[in-house]
Amino acid sequence: MALAFTFCSYNGFLQGTMLKELEGRVAWSPLTIAGLGIMLFGAYHNVLADYTLRSLRRTSSSAQRYVAPPNVGLFTWVSGANFLGEIVEWSGYAMLCGGALPAVAFAAFTALNIGPRAVHHHADYCKKIDGYDALGRTAIIPFLL
């Protein structure tokens, strides 16, 4: 818990300092507009996936602990829709910031940290939910991984 607090505090400091440095220097270019759109797309799907997973927790009994997420949002293609949404969100943020090092580093760290979790969750779903393979979902990158 202390490590998470330390990381979040330091990352918040880095992102805030970077945004202060960029103030007035980042123009509304096609790259920043695309970054904003990608960030909002990722944020929407991240929240939608989290809501979907929380609603499964409320409706399933302890005897039926593992239930396949319904075909909603990015869950149509991947098991880790919440992870994919977050990776897309922070990648868009890095674009929005014009490729500034702290934003790119955070997007990369996010992908490298939660990507393997998505692969593990997908393998767990395939092992514990009957017929999950038949849904044709991949772990985190649609149609690839």
Automatic annotation (TrEMBL):
Topology class, membrane: Multi-pass membrane protein
Domain 3-oxo-5-alpha-steroid 4-dehydrogenase C-terminal, residue spans: 2-145
Matching Pfam families: Steroid_dh
Transmembrane domains' residue ranges: 26-45, 90-112
An annotated GO cellular component: endoplasmic reticulum membrane
One GO molecular-function entry: 3-oxo-5-alpha-steroid 4-dehydrogenase activity
Subcellular location: Endoplasmic reticulum membrane; Microsome membrane
Domain of life: Eukaryota
Entry-linked InterPro entries: 3-oxo-5_a-steroid_4-DH_C, SRD5A/TECR
Keyword annotations from UniProtKB, A to Z: Differentiation, Endoplasmic reticulum, Lipid metabolism, Membrane, Microsome, NADP, Oxidoreductase, Transmembrane, Transmembrane helix
GO biological process terms, semicolon-separated: cell differentiation; steroid biosynthetic process
Record-stated family: Belongs to the steroid 5-alpha reductase family.
Protein name: 3-oxo-5-alpha-steroid 4-dehydrogenase C-terminal domain-containing protein
Natural source organism: Pycnococcus provasolii
Lineage of the species this protein comes from: Eukaryota, Viridiplantae, Chlorophyta, Pseudoscourfieldiophyceae, Pseudoscourfieldiales
